[in-house]
Amino acid sequence: MNIENIGTNLGAEVRGVDLTDTDAETVGVLRQVFRAHGVLVFRDQPVTDDQQVAFSRHFGTIEPTLPSDPYGGGGLINRIGNVDAAGEIIPSDDKRSLYQAGNMLWHADGSFRAAPLKASFLSAKEVPPAGGETEFASVRAAFADLPEGRKTELEGLVAEHSMAHSRAQIAPDLMTEAFSREAPPVRHDLIRIVPETGEKMLHVGSYASHIIGWPVEKGRALLLELLEWATQPRYVVSHSWRADDLVMWDNRCCLHRGRPWAFDEDRRIMHRTTLKGTD
Ligand code: OGA
Ligand code: MN
Questions:
Q1: pLDDT by residue (tens digit) across 115-168?
Q2: Which residues pair with 255 in a beta bridge?
Q3: Ligand 1 centre and the CA of 128: distance in Å?
Q4: 103 C-alpha to center of ligand 2: Å?
Q5: Tens digits of per-residue pLDDT, 240-275?
Q6: Does the beta carbon of 109 sit less than 6 angstroms from any atom of ligand 1?
């Protein structure tokens, strides 16, 4: 196995592993490498859905998508892309596309859940010839670099997160009533502590709406300031996809967002599995 850093703050490319054939020793090493780097890139891994599920389970328990998710609920595989079941490109102004456009806002997967999702695995099936990258930002390095006084001010603050807040930034009527009911707002500490390591992370992103006990606008301004801080170029790495790439990331130590491509011309199909959180 060969491991090469991608950014100074985040990410590594791992070579010399076949994700469909990992023994206990390899899994042990990958767990350590994942903890250290937060984002792992594997090239040339043409996994089936079952193989992706099996690989993901080495790192935790898979959380199915919410049953009422209007765009593919209740399964182990979250299909992300611009192609419908019949193989046709979904127009970019279709509601399904707008809903997925939420992926283009900086976020941590599932932070609208009471137990935010721990890690995500994304396998590229079809990728556009240009654009469609995924960017990752280290909220570990961003927190560590904050002035000490700022860290103290943030201590004890709690933010409200919701799916509704994220999708309201795209278009006003994207949430179905059933989905809103199933995903009510939740509260998370602004400073997230990773239980295994005790490390502190900034917990911000598109689902974070406001600070509990503060006027909404004041809280929103703080969350925006911290998001801008955490997504400065020095904390960000970009992944340019090739078909059969598999990228896994720890949602606690990084934010991510998708980048645009020629939505109405080029196909992009990705399959995601996601692990349950604990807090
Ligand atoms: C995701 C996501 C971005 C992308 O799969 O959770 O946000 O580039 N994807 O597809
Ligand atoms: Mn995501």
A1: 999 999 999 999 999 999 999 999 999 999 999 999 999 999 999 999 888 888
A2: 137
A3: 14
A4: 5
A5: 999 999 999 999 999 999 999 999 999 999 999 999
A6: yes
What is the spatial distance between Cα 141 and Cα 134, in angstroms, rounded to a whole number?
Answer: 19
Cα(48) to centroid(ligand 2), Å: 20
Expressed in angstroms and rounded, the spacing between residue 25 Cα and the centre of ligand 2 is 29
Pick the residue whose CA is nearest to atom 6 on ligand 1: 109
φ/ψ of residue 200, rounded to 5 = -100, 135
Is 211 within 8 Å of 158 (Cβ atoms)? Answer: yes
Positive or negative CA dihedral for 117, 75, 103, 40? positive
Residues whose CB falls within 8 Å of the CB of residue 125, separated by 6 or more in sequence, listed in order: 81, 243, 269, 270, 271
Any idea which ligand is nearest the CA of 123?
1
- Average pLDDT of the residues of the chain: 94
Residue 174: what pLDDT? 78
**Which ligand does the CA of 238 lie closest to?**
1
- For residue 70, the tally of other CB atoms under 10 A from its CB is 14
Q: Is the CB of 134 under 6 A from ligand 1?
A: yes
DSSP string for 39-75: EEEE-S----HHHHHHHHTTSSPBPPPPTT-TTT-SS
Looking from the CA of residue 268, the nearest atom of ligand 1 is 10
Residue 175 has pLDDT above 80, yes or no: no
Q: Kindly state the tokens that stand for 207.
A: 């689902």
| Residue 70 phi, psi (nearest 5) | -70, -10
**Ligand 1 centroid, distance to 215 Cα (angstroms):** 32
- The protein residues having their C-beta less than 5 angstroms from ligand 2 (an ion) are 109
For ligand 1, whether the C-beta of 135 sits within 6 Å is: no
Structure tokens belonging to residue 52: 């992706």
Rounded CA-CA distance 218/231 in Å is: 20
Q: What is the DSSP letter of 208?
A: E
